[in-house]
Amino acid sequence: MFNDRADLSTAARIRDAAVLEFGQHGFGVGVRAIAARAEVSPGLVNHHFGSKEGLRRACDDHVLGFVRDQRVEVLTGGDMAGGMLAAMAEMEEYAPLFAYLVRSLEDGGPLADSLFDHIVDDAVTYTEEAVAAGIIKPSRDPAARARYLMLLNLGATLLYLRMRRRRDPELDDRQALRDLMSEFALPALEMYTQGLLTDPAVLDSFLQEK
Amino acid sequence: MFNDRADLSTAARIRDAAVLEFGQHGFGVGVRAIAARAEVSPGLVNHHFGSKEGLRRACDDHVLGFVRDQRVEVLTGGDMAGGMLAAMAEMEEYAPLFAYLVRSLEDGGPLADSLFDHIVDDAVTYTEEAVAAGIIKPSRDPAARARYLMLLNLGATLLYLRMRRRRDPELDDRQALRDLMSEFALPALEMYTQGLLTDPAVLDSFLQEK
DNA sequence: GTCTATATAATGATAGAC
DNA sequence: GTCTATCATTATATAGAC
Questions:
Q1: Structural domain containing residue A13
Q2: What's the CA gap between A153 and A86, in Å, rounded?
Q3: Backbone φ and ψ of A197, nearest 5°
Q4: In this structure, is residue B207 part of a structural domain?
């Protein structure tokens, strides 16, 4: 992303400025702030993108296209608990993308659904490989499990970020993410290695009920 | 909550109307809509509460006070996966509270932190009892585990609700919550009974690193 | 206490000059 | 393509009559 400024058309510069502004301050940010960042007039923004929503669509398309081009190992990382966002957060150059993605998922906007589906698709592949390698236990419904794990981990991440952001607003999301992983590494590993319930028959009786 | 309308002072009627409006449409809703629902003039709202933020504080205090008065079994329910929100959603008379709480947690507003802490406190007690009863495995750090589990389940719930709400806006949150639990009952039980990783030594090696 | 009317501020969008 | 200026809408908050 983000080539040299001089290389880009004005429209692309506005779009990149919008990605940055939306990522840092959420989608409530005004057209004027975006225009200021792109060093153009407010009127020019709508001249190119029609409306604020059109601008956001352009941002979504751009970000989603970029994410789709990344390889699987980037998206799922080595760490099931952290998932894709953790991996992206560690790469300096992806910081603006990371922020935009978090905002987009929080907002539940148009990008959120396709992005979530994309993450789940990757997770299915990734867990299949890990099952074949004997690292992860097999599941009776691998697709549902992948979806479930992503819902848990992504949802927890977003909730944690929002609460942390409120508690100390100057802390950036990427540091908060590192804190999240170190704070909960122990319970996460306990859960992943030994589960939670003592009686494994709970699962069997559920299966028989069906 | 919600006594007979005639019993309430005008200020309390406005506050209850605000809880309903905020719960149904989020905190972006205007003072005018709240005033209309309470059947008073817009000006009167700020006369009583000073500002919109003051009104929201009054709503927060009211809802939090109500939640604090509930008993533990209501808050944690019988189902670890669903947690408190699931239990509340099933009780018809709590529907407005439920909606308000979800909005508040989504928003990350002032209520969210104290509410989350309260839920975690309850979860600590609840899991302690379950460990003593031999239902749940012990943890090396019970407080961190309770916090972790609540972060996972609450975060997943909020994320799911937001995505569902977008996909079909006419579906209400309580039905969505039932869908969530039936859709993911299997992977959740798999996770709770058998964990995810085949090699239990992963935990031990993590502990030795410290 | 309660109302109507208005001040004030910010936003997205547009018109028209260059 | 790009700018300045402005419109129209919407929101919160307030002033003053009753």
A1: 5-196
A2: 11
A3: -90, 145
A4: no
Q: Which pLDDT band, with edges at 50, 70 and 90, does B91 fall under?
A: confident
- What CATH number is given to the structural domain containing A111? 1.10.357.10
- Beta carbon of B42 within 7 Å of strand D? yes
pLDDT digits (tens, 9 = 90+) for A63-85: 988 888 764 343 443 344 445 56
Window B:42-81, CB contacts with A under 8 Å = 80
Contact of A192 with chain B, judged by CB distance below 8 Å, is answered with yes
Q: d(Cα B207, Cα A54) in Å, to the nearest integer?
A: 51
Residue B43: is its pLDDT beyond 70?
A: yes
- Whether residue A201 is contained in a domain is answered as no
Chain B residues 47-86 with Cβ under 7 Å of strand C are 47-48
pTM, to two decimals: 0.92
> What's the residue count for chain B?
210
Task: Give residue B95's pLDDT.
Answer: 87
Number of domains in chain A: 1
Q: Which tops the pLDDT comparison, A157 or B84? A: A157
Protein residue with the closest CA to the C1' atom of nucleotide C14:
A43
- Is B204 within a domain? no
Q: Which residues of chain A from 82 to 141 reach within 8 Å of chain B, CB to CB?
A: 105, 108-109, 112-113, 116, 134-137, 139-141
Residue A205 belongs to some domain of the structure:
no
- Contacts with B164 (C-beta within 8 Å, 6 or more apart), sequence order: B171, B176, B179, B180
Cβ separation of B186 and A197 shorter than 8 Å? no
Which residues does residue B136 pair with via DSSP β-bridges, in sequence order?
A197
